[in-house]
């Protein structure tokens, strides 16, 4: 957890991040020794391990090759998780320089990812926003939608943020009704994935169609429709929870 000044001989993976961007020279995360990448003299903090090597966070903006972590979202899931942690921690420390209650300058905890106010003793942790994502099956069809926010031709399952005072299950039923106008049943949990855009934790579910006709929300969605499992449009890349939910739904469709 402790920050240290790099001498140059430290080894590992280097997450250089500021303002939700990460340094990806040649489109990849740099690895090797600090001086190999001219990182000596920077303050760095170990934030985990990947492939047996330390993952370091340096809160800094390089003059070039600063990119969105989306660039590596469909590569190794564990690496993406580490980069997401780094980008979110960099943003957390940047947005928590002063205490929200009393306005005094804060310090970083040495023992956990937290900021401490020595004046009023408040303690702040990185914000994590729970969200839901759900694969819905109707016989041998799956519900896929195109989102207004990502006009890249990709069709994916429905998703949305959990509201304050709401269970995950209630959030799934509400989001599905709001975005598509249908009712679902047989809701079951599958898996979760941290999703750093900007600070979400996606909880993945499968469900079956119950009733209603699709009537998509034009504010959120360009389109929503049923697709037969063996005739799907462009779907999200591997190593994403959306892809996994689609594949598990397709497997269920096949058994029909
Ligand atoms: Zn305070």
TrEMBL record:
mRNA decapping enzyme that specifically removes the nicotinamide adenine dinucleotide (NAD) cap from a subset of mRNAs by hydrolyzing the diphosphate linkage to produce nicotinamide mononucleotide (NMN) and 5' monophosphate mRNA. The NAD-cap is present at the 5'-end of some mRNAs and stabilizes RNA against 5'-processing. Has preference for mRNAs with a 5'-end purine. Catalyzes the hydrolysis of a broad range of dinucleotide pyrophosphates. A motif (Nudix box) lies at residues 160-181. Divalent metal cations. Mg(2+) or Mn(2+). Binds 1 zinc ion per subunit. Keywords: Hydrolase, Magnesium, Manganese, Metal-binding, NAD, Zinc. Residues 126-250 form the Nudix hydrolase domain. A divalent metal cation 3 binds at residues 175, 179, 220. SUPFAM superfamilies: Nudix. Its cofactor is Mg(2+); Mn(2+); Zn(2+). One of its GO terms (cellular component) is cytosol. PROSITE patterns: NUDIX, NUDIX_BOX. Zn(2+) binds at residues 99, 102, 117, 120. A divalent metal cation 1 binds at residues 159, 179, 220. GO terms for biological process: NAD+ catabolic process; NADP+ catabolic process. The keyword Cell membrane does not apply. Substrate binds at residues 70, 112, 125, 193-200, 242. Homodimer. Belongs to the Nudix hydrolase family. NudC subfamily. This is NAD-capped RNA hydrolase NudC. Pfam families: NUDIX, Zn_ribbon_NUD. It comes from Xenorhabdus khoisanae. It catalyses: a 5'-end NAD(+)-phospho-ribonucleoside in mRNA + H2O = a 5'-end phospho-adenosine-phospho-ribonucleoside in mRNA + beta-nicotinamide D-ribonucleotide + 2 H(+); NAD(+) + H2O = beta-nicotinamide D-ribonucleotide + AMP + 2 H(+); NADH + H2O = reduced beta-nicotinamide D-ribonucleotide + AMP + 2 H(+). A divalent metal cation 2 binds at residue 175. It is an enzyme of class 3 (hydrolase). Its EC number is 3.6.1.-, 3.6.1.22. GO terms for molecular function: magnesium ion binding; manganese ion binding; NAD+ diphosphatase activity; NADH pyrophosphatase activity; RNA NAD-cap (NMN-forming) hydrolase activity; zinc ion binding.
């Amino acid at each position: 957890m402790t920050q240290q000044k790099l001498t140059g001989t430290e080894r590992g993976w280097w997450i250089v991040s500021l303002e939700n961007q990460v340094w990806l020279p040649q489109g990849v995360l740099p690895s090797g020794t600090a001086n190999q990448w001219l990182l000596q003299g920077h303050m760095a903090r170990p934030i985990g391990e990947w492939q047996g090597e330390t993952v370091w966070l340096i809160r800094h903006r390089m003059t070039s090759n600063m990119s969105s972590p989306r660039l590596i979202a469909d590569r190794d899931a564990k690496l993406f998780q580490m980069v997401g942690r780094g980008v979110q921690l960099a943003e957390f420390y940047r947005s928590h320089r002063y205490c929200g209650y009393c306005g005094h300058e804060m310090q970083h905890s040495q023992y956990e990812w937290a900021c401490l106010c020595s004046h009023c003793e408040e303690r702040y942790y990185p914000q994590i926003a729970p969200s839901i994502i759900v694969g819905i099956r109707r016989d041998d069809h799956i519900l896929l939608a195109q989102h207004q926010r990502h006009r890249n031709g990709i069709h994916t399952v429905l998703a949305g943020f959990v509201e304050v005072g709401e269970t995950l299950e209630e959030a799934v039923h509400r989001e599905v009704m709001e975005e598509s106008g249908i009712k679902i049943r047989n809701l079951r949990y599958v898996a979760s994935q941290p999703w750093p855009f900007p600070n979400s934790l996606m909880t993945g579910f499968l469900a079956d169609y119950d009733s209603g006709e699709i009537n998509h929300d034009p504010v959120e969605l360009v389109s929503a429709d049923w697709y037969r499992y063996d005739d799907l449009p462009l779907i999200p890349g591997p190593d994403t929870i959306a892809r996994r939910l689609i594949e598990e739904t397709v497997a269920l469709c096949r058994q029909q």
